[in-house]
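Follow-up to my earlier ticket, as requested here are the two runs.
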Amino acid sequence: MDNNSVPFEIVATGEVDLYLAPVSTPFPTTPSETPPAPWALIGKSGGQNYDPAGITIALAQSTTELRGLKDVETRKVIRTSASKKLSGNVFDITAETMALALNGNAIVETPGGADKGFQTIGLSLGSMVTTYALLMRSVSPYLADGASQWCFPIVVQSGSPSVVYSNNGAAGLALEFTALVDTTQAAAKRSGWYEAEHEDASS
């Protein structure tokens, strides 16, 4: 089924799913391969649980301009910092999704009996931050029926979500994932990489 239309490079769709897995989990070999376990969707129904405002990938950097004593013009620019962040609001406040905002705290299940069963998750956080591998799936900017994927080998959930119960919208979690450097990857891929299918398979 086609998921993009010409011009393909203009992507105007919210067809996005996010997956998490333990660090060092292999990424799918192609953007169309179904992510196998232990990859797990963020949100009970994946993209159906994401805020229509979208998922944002920020490729941020800071630079410094260098000037010589005898000249006011810039002679050189150096990069002083760089970061990759992925953020979005997930309309899912199950304990399983809440755990992402709570450092992966354990969920304790109390089975039903005379009373309804329930799940409990602690809200306290320690100083150490849980790491994950993160995969984002979307459409290809080259093909009508192609896929793309953003791969981040190590991330932490760095957002500070506020859960709002309101008559004006769904309660959700504003999650933000910050990429860390994976020194086992090639230099250009240490903080992640992007892949997109660009041609159909040969017959």
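Run two:
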Amino acid sequence: MAVPRARTDEIARYLRVAATFARNSLVRDMTFRANFLIDAATSIVWMLMNLAFYVLIFSFTTSLGVGTGWGKYQFFVFLATGMFINSLVQAFFMPNANEFGEHIRTGRLDFALVKPIDTQFLVSLSRIEWSSLSNFAVAAVLLGYSLVQIGHRPSVVECVLYPFYVLCGVAVLYSLMMPLAACAVWLGRNESLYDYWFYVINFSRYPMEIYRGTYGTPLRLFFTYMIPVLIVVNVPARLLAKPLDPDNWWLAICAFVATLASLAVSRWIFQRALASYRSASS
């Protein structure tokens, strides 16, 4: 079934707007090149420090827990995947979510509402932190090196599914971030509530197999099926690090469904917040 021409034109218009945002953000960053380079270097150093921490841990053990299947280089595939996802979130969405409350307090949201474009799209992508994408270089090198050490050559299917599920992970994190940011409409200031996003995503930093036992199993189930942060990194990482695991396809299906559900709930909450917004001039 062919896509209607009007729909195609609308998608093209949104892509042009996104490209304009990206270009303007890059021009802004290049205006202050020293600051851009410092931010990029700081981000890379932080990632390298995290990597050094895990290298130190694996100098005392060969796997992350008994029977989990996450050896040193399998976990480094997981770590690289997390770097990819967090880098995209930090570059495209985090600065905009941080500024949403300020838009409300200063009345700048009024100008966004009257523009002939979707408000959520506008406030989510108007600013891009290009320096945050510097982590991509570290992640790509770490991923390639780890796969060589594992001896795994990704298949064509894995090469397609891996970036797809990386983007699904980005979408899930975005879906958790924007509703918390939108709460500023009702609360005025929501910095403390927004901090919960960082607390929750800490669970996504480790393989889901470590969450087991009396307390771990309920946490794994809750953060897989209720607040799906565990699937964010685990699903794409498992496709490469543990390709023969029979649970991969079930988790992949869950991740796809959870992504669609998360985006739908996030959209609904954001629209409810906009409906409750009162203009700064009213």
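The only thing I checked on run two: The chain has one domain: 5-276. Let me know what else you need.
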